[in-house]
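Translate sequence into structure tokens.
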Amino acid sequence: MYEPGSVVRSQRGTVIEVLENGPDRLRIKREMPPATGKGVEHFHQNGVESFLVLEGEATGSVNGESRVLRIGDELRVEVGSAHVHPHTAPEATAVIEHTIEPCPRFAGVYFASWLTWLADGRVNAQDEPTFLSVMGVIRHGGGGTWVKGPPVLLQRALAAVLSPVAASRGYRVVEPPH
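Result follows.
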């Protein structure tokens, strides 16, 4: 499911194709139906993230600056920059190429787990992982990606407490293949 060429489809119509998956780079193509893809504002302590719009229109932000992204536009997120991934409006669709370089352990665990939950329909209304499931990923993936605002130490402690709850509710954390 996580090797290049693998495709995962959600019940809402999100389609993820794994283009590249290794320690140096993770690259996926995401077909986004209306009103999908919006997550919380967060930052990464390792790994540069970029989003290239191949079709349609989406909105994303970096350091509080929101941008409408159209075909050919790229949203580049440097290490430490608070951002919200590109997401579609209720009347819009998009196809986005999403790249992380290098691919730290947390990102590998996050994507392997998210793709499993996406295929199983265990995601939120935006086709994103739930808060509880992300707590398990933080605990098992070692962190490195954090919500903007709450102190990292508090987020680590919360993940330690909530990870077993996530597991008991069926949010199995998946190890990446590399």
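Note: The radius of gyration is 15 Å.
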